[in-house]
Amino acid sequence: MSEYLRLNRAQWDERAPAHAASPGYSRQRFIDDPAYLSDVVRFDLPRLGPVDGLRAVHLQCHIGTDTLSLYRLGAKITGLDFSGASLAEARALAAATGASIDYVQADVYDAPEVLEPGAFDLVYTGIGALCWLPDVRRWAGVVAALLRPGGRLFIREGHPMLWAVDETRPDGVLAVDQAYFERVEPLVWEESGTYVETDVTFQHTVTHQWNHGLGEIVTAVMDAGLELTMLQEHDSAPWDALPGRTVADEHGEFRLAERPWRLPQTYTLQARKR
């Protein structure tokens, strides 16, 4: 196993139980309300369109809240993730809600080897996935291999401009200090916490991540044989990416408190396999 996979999987394995227990993932609400959908999926409902009856796969599904949401919209869904601990939480949530969801443990680059190539109507990827992958062109090839002709990719993701911003400056200036374009060398981060509320103390704190420019992502998707059908940038994110500088709306989306039009925080992309 490569060093980046070893470090990143250890981080996700350790954080999965804490994420499942946190209010941010609303696990109990999924159990109590059969109609409840994750904030991420609900945000994109006008763009996602009907998925009822579609055979779908959610790549890098983590603890399965978005996966369950797509299932509740009628998709015949499979979730894939490299973290066994994350999938244990996803399976437990599916069992607690009576959802029939298949979960497969594998690295996303190995998805065509463990799933049926050319069999899916929809490949879905949610927030915070691509930054863990060193090669976006290889990822786009995986997507193309999984989709049937006419099938589509749907992704909402953190904007590469947001990932390039240094959010730690004490003067509050939003400075572009990290790589915007994909580089061979990873960004090595050491973070003792996580992005949801928890009092857990973590031992695995080092991760390797990569940014991918928006043009690099679009070009990779098109070169893999998909036609771009939608690209929308958003001034908000479903988590507080810039603490102390944002305000939340009634849907749980965070925007800059001052002049939010300065910074794209996320984007939604859709493409269809030729």
TrEMBL record:
GO terms for biological process, alphabetical:
methylation
Q: Keywords in alphabetical order, please.
A: Methyltransferase, Transferase
- Domain of life, per UniProt, equals Bacteria
What the entry lists under InterPro entries is as follows: Methyltransf_12, SAM-dependent_MTases_sf
Please provide an example of a Pfam family that matches this protein in its UniProt record. Answer: Methyltransf_12
- Would the keyword Methyltransferase be found if you checked this record's keyword annotation? yes
Q: Which SUPFAM superfamilies match?
A: S-adenosyl-L-methionine-dependent methyltransferases
Cross-referenced Gene3D superfamilies? Vaccinia Virus protein VP39 (3.40.50.150)
Q: List, for all copies, the residue spans of the domain called Methyltransferase type.
A: 58-153
GO molecular function term, any single one: methyltransferase activity
Report the PANTHER family cross-referenced here.
Answer: METHYLTRANSFERASE, METHYLTRANSFERASE DOMAIN-CONTAINING PROTEIN
Name recorded for this polypeptide: Class I SAM-dependent methyltransferase
